[in-house]
Amino acid sequence: MKRLALTILLLNALFTSVMSQTKEITLSRAVRLAEEFVIRNGYTDLPPSKDKNEIKLEPIERYSNIDAILADRRNTLERRAYGGKVRPDVGGWIVVFRYKDKERNAKSGRVVTMGPKGENIRMEHQDFLLNHVERLSR
User: Fold this and answer.
1) Segments forming the whole domain that contains residue 53
2) Which of 61, 119, 132, 134 is deepest in the core (most CB within 10 A)?
3) How many domains does the chain contain in total?
4) Other C-beta atoms within 10 Å of 114: how many?
5) Does 15 reside within a domain?
6) pLDDT in tens, the chain (138 residues)
7) Residue 77 near residue 100, CB atoms below 8 Å
C-alpha cells in the first residue's frame, strides 16, 4: 500500500512538472521570471548569479570578459518591472524595466522578452518606449 501511494505521488509530481512545461504562462508569471532574470544577470543593485555560466549575453556583447560585462550592467535597471504585455508579433511576453537614471532615460526602458511558456528569455538590446506598454499595478 505504501508503494502504491508513493508511486501515485511521484506520478502526480511528474505530471504537474510536465504540464507546467507545456502550459502558457500568465503575465504575472512572466513578470516574476523577468525580474529574476534582470537580477541574476547583473542589471540591478543586487549581486548577479555567482555561476558565470548562467549569465546570458546580449546580442551585441561579443567580448568575452564577463566581469567587464557585469560591471557595465551593474545598477542600470530597477529591480521591479514597469510594465508588460503580450508580444504582438510572435506571442510570448514583453516585460519592460525602467532605467535607474530616470533623468536621462525618462521615456524609455529595457525590455526582456520570452516565449509564451517563459522559454527563450533574453534582454533585447534596443530601448523600448514606456508609453507602448501598460504600467503594472502593484
Assistant:
1) 24-132
2) 61
3) 1
4) 21
5) no
6) 767 655 666 566 565 555 455 689 999 999 999 999 999 999 999 999 999 999 999 988 876 789 999 999 999 999 999 999 998 888 899 999 999 987 778 899 999 999 999 999 999 999 999 999 989 987
7) yes
Which residue type does 137 have? Answer: S
Separation of alpha carbons 71 and 119, rounded Å: 26
CA distances from 9 to 4, 17, 18, 21, 23 (A): 9, 12, 14, 19, 21
Q: What is the DSSP string of 66-122?
A: HHHHHHHHTT-B-SS--EEEE-TTTSSEEEEEEBS-TTTSSSEEEEEEE-TTS-S-E
- 110 inside domain: yes
Is residue 45 in a domain? yes
Residues in a beta bridge with 77: 99
Indicate whether this model's pTM tops 0.85: no
